[in-house]
Amino acid sequence: MLLRHLLLPEIQDLIEAGRLNDVREFLAKQPGPEIAELLTALDDKERVLLFRLLPRQLADEVFSLLDPAFQNLLLENMAQEEVRQVLSGLTPDDRTALFEELPARVTQGLLGLLNDKDRKQALTLLSYPEGSVGRLMTDRYVKVEPEWTIAQAMEHLRKAGLDSETIAMLYITDARGRLTDDLRLRKLIIADPALRVADLLDGHYACLHSLQPREEAVQTFKKYDLYALPVVDADGILLGIVTIDDILDVAEAEATEDFHKLATVRPLQVNFKDATLALLFRKRIGWLLGLVLVNIFTGMGIKIFEDTIVAVAALVALMPLLIGSGGNAGAQAATLVVRAIATGEIGSEDWWKLVLREIGVSVAIGLAMSAAAFFLGLALGNLHVALVVALSMTTVVVAGSLLGTVLPMVLNRLQLDPATASVPLITSMADIFGVLIYFSIANAVLRFFPIAPT
Amino acid sequence: MLLRHLLLPEIQDLIEAGRLNDVREFLAKQPGPEIAELLTALDDKERVLLFRLLPRQLADEVFSLLDPAFQNLLLENMAQEEVRQVLSGLTPDDRTALFEELPARVTQGLLGLLNDKDRKQALTLLSYPEGSVGRLMTDRYVKVEPEWTIAQAMEHLRKAGLDSETIAMLYITDARGRLTDDLRLRKLIIADPALRVADLLDGHYACLHSLQPREEAVQTFKKYDLYALPVVDADGILLGIVTIDDILDVAEAEATEDFHKLATVRPLQVNFKDATLALLFRKRIGWLLGLVLVNIFTGMGIKIFEDTIVAVAALVALMPLLIGSGGNAGAQAATLVVRAIATGEIGSEDWWKLVLREIGVSVAIGLAMSAAAFFLGLALGNLHVALVVALSMTTVVVAGSLLGTVLPMVLNRLQLDPATASVPLITSMADIFGVLIYFSIANAVLRFFPIAPT
């Protein structure tokens, strides 16, 4: 952070003064991640200018560190030959991540700039479903043969290691290419060089499947505490590896998507910061309009009780508290369940236990809320209103909480995204229950304790 | 997942039949992560039994893979000597994570079981503030000397590598212990063994500071795409390293905390699955009761307009739609901003731009919502009500959206947690605006177009 703030004005001054050679010399001595951060703070024109001043190898490193959205901004302002160079400098997984971000038409054009081998590989990776483990793969891993000596394996590593994404873990396959074992580099390094690779193998390995959803890979990485995992197809053939730095990105992106969904914002695909007004409108308006439909039922519910409202207008003053509290308790429950499903913490075997516990929790919460509501009812209305609000509160809170707990579970069982049980949806649905319960109880109470209109 | 489901019934049968030797033999051949997963699925008694059957080294591995909550469950059922063994088998960072979870009294007892060196180290790590980078540190890294040859460095690695948490990155310090450089193992491996370590150094390194908040470490790891980062104190002294597997855990835990906060659930500290009814009650009731206070203002707002309500009761039927829509739009805005601040995507330099864009987005959303509300007003009320609802809707949506955008920014500037701008808080505050705007516009419309009570 510091470096960016220190360098930015200085670099901008040099650019303005046209002292590009000084900028070039200066940049060549900076680490890639600092330059990448610097680029994101510049405007479009400066960004391309600066990028062009980087020596080739540094440019490749910097480009690979940028977000796909920024990579795209740079590519748009480059000549075809520059684009070709930059693309060939990317690792296969970074290339897939970039192509995923681009419109199909642009991706087609870029694929045409790759050499045959890279293009074939990019097409293979893009053929895996969006959001699958296959899309995260790179083929830059090191394979060793069981019959090699440790010294031979180390010698191989010296040649093959330069190009590989990680050498922390090495892989062993059979003649047909099926994964048979993995080997920690550490084990190799500390082993007697005269031993054979086979002597270090234990036949146990963890792996991912290419068609698995990528969020499952996050859980697998957490389970095994590894920095890289191999990916196999249905026949066990080793296709590539996934590294933990990509998994960290996936974990953040999946969490962000769930945050947005829980607030009825459809996945943005781009950074919030870079989203256009039109895009934000499109991603937000859908559910808001949809929830208007849910409100029709709340409105119809209220209309049924119009006579009661005219008779005791003070009831209306407490209505937002009542339906709001049901919604808030439901929002808590839904968020807890949606997140616990996403982190793999709860599965369908836990559901009954969780529902029963939620009944207990929400009854306790409801009773405490009823006490508070009773005093508020006295303050804003009268004893009758206080009684109605207190009696309704527990029921409404329990109804909202159960809705928030059960709906994500049901969605999950139906193979739908549990985060669709968003807070606004739960809140709007709780409104319907709330209104019906509140005014029904009001009618009942008023029948037993009739009062004159206030 | 598969293995757990396959093994569980079989193991339980063997335990029931008392064939513990068979279980022991079977377990000794399984990989640690599978056993760890198996343990979490067993009940308390079986879990301890099974754990006791593991050979020492495997037991250490399995224990270190368990969540601190589960580690605690195991410890509670172990004899003192067993506890001592298990604790000494943990790495320093895992030990800190476990101690963090336990009540201070229990931690004191466990510290007494450690040898002098381990205890001193544990106390040092626990002296860093909760949630700081210092708490994630381990001292199990490898240092190399610049004057060594590559061959000497590799020889050192062979001895020191076994005990270290990662060997992907090696570190260089000066005579006073200040970090001066880092070196990728890969560079060492592919280098000419006759060269010196100094020949491979470039003087550039990334590092963390021990007192930094741990969520900043997540962003640093993402920026540098490294598997480990060194940690220094204010004088630049190398204190330890942090590894990316812990950072993945931090990223998930921080996201979970924000999810919960956004729904007014205070941080649980334990798994949702394992939370007791009493704990959930305590973590949820606080804000729910607090929001009752906010509702006092909504209620008072409504009371001002009681005459209007009695005159046109149909207005009430549309009130939940109106205040709900303001809250929903506000929930979207707040969630977008809170998450973007958490991922480091937006900083204070972007605020004005974001507020202006939000005005644009919310006006567009508000107009679309007004159109929908107009028709709903016609359906549930009459032309007057429809007019009031349509006129109010845009204002309420814009007010809610701006509240949701600005409140997290203000909290962040005040060094408070932006996620305190929770969805229920925004919704409840939007209710106040909503009610005042709605009934004020109703009064104005009714003055110009007076109608008889329905």
Describe the model.
2 copies of one chain form a homodimer. By secondary structure, chain A is mainly alpha-helical. Chain A has 3 domains: 2-128, MgtE N-terminal domain-like (MgtE N-terminal fold, Alpha Horseshoe); 150-260, CBS-domain; 277-448, SLC41 divalent cation transporters, integral membrane domain (Tetracycline Repressor, domain 2), CATH 1.10.357.20. The first copy, chain A, has helices at residues 2-16, 20-28, 32-41, 44-52, 56-65, 68-76, 80-88, 92-101, 104-111, 116-126, 150-160, 185-190, 197-200, 214-224, 244-262, 277-304, 306-311, 314-342, 351-380, 383-413, 423-448, and strands at 169-173, 179-184, 208-209, 228-232, 238-243. In chain A, helix 18 packs antiparallel against helix 21 and helix 20 (383-413) runs antiparallel to helix 21 (423-448). Chains A and B meet through helix 3, helix 11, helix 12, helix 14 and helix 15 of A and helix 3, helix 11, helix 12, helix 14 and helix 15 of B.
Shape designation of chain A: elongated
Please mark out the parts of chain A with pLDDT under 50 across 5 or more consecutive residues, or reply none.
none
Overall domain count of chain A: 3
CATH superfamily of the largest domain in chain A: SLC41 divalent cation transporters, integral membrane domain
Layout: helices, strands, pairs:
The structure is a homodimer of 454-residue chains.
Chain A: H1 2-16, H2 20-28, H3 32-41, H4 44-52, H5 56-65, H6 68-76, H7 80-88, H8 92-101, H9 104-111, H10 116-126, H11 150-160, E1 169-173, E2 179-184, H12 185-190, H13 197-200, E3 208-209, H14 214-224, E4 228-232, E5 238-243, H15 244-262, H16 277-304, H17 306-311, H18 314-342, H19 351-380, H20 383-413, H21 423-448
Parallel strand pairs in A: 3-4
Antiparallel strand pairs in A: 1-2, 4-5
Helix pairs in contact in A: 1-3, 3-5, 6-8, 8-10, 14-15, 16-21, 18-19, 18-20, 18-21, 19-20, 20-21
